[in-house]
Design brief:
The chain has a single domain, classed as Roll (PH-domain like), CATH 2.30.29. The longest helix has 26 residues. The protein starts with a helix and ends in a 15-residue tail after the last strand. With 116 residues, it is α+β, with helices and mostly antiparallel strands. A hairpin with a 3-residue loop joins strand 6 and strand 7. About 8% of the residues have low confidence.
Length: 116
């Protein structure tokens, strides 16, 4: 019985991820290649605002990338195989900037020391 419940929960989770994929596809504007979002096997994982980490001469602070820093606010959409970078627009829309294949990216731990 537990296996059946786990199976149903997993299928429900996959369905929700697929629905989110379609939602992002519909909310995206701008010039992006056909098939950027809807491809077999791709699922939505997570999304959120991109934060820039910087040292202001004091302790490390995290601030959103925005107009004060000379750039636009950025929004990231993580899928199982790509990372999509966009800018938020009104009414839950996004302007596509680029898509990066996760196979081409590397994560590196960076240790920053604050100046006291």
């Amino acid at each position: 019985m537990q296996q059946t419940g786990d199976y149903i929960n997993e299928k429900k989770r996959q369905s929700e991820q697929l629905q989110k994929l379609f939602t992002v596809d519909q909310a995206m504007t701008g010039n992006f290649p056909t098939g950027t979002f809807i491809v077999p096997g791709r699922l939505w994982v997570k999304e959120g605002e991109l934060l820039a980490m910087r040292i202001d001469g004091k302790p490390l602070s995290a601030k959103p990338i925005g107009k004060k820093e000379g750039g636009k606010p950025l929004f990231i959409h993580l899928f199982t195989d790509i990372l999509v970078v966009s800018t938020p627009k009104p009414k839950g829309r996004f302007k596509y900037l680029m898509a990066l294949r996760l196979d081409d990216l590397a994560v590196q731990e960076v240790h920053l020391l604050s100046r006291e």
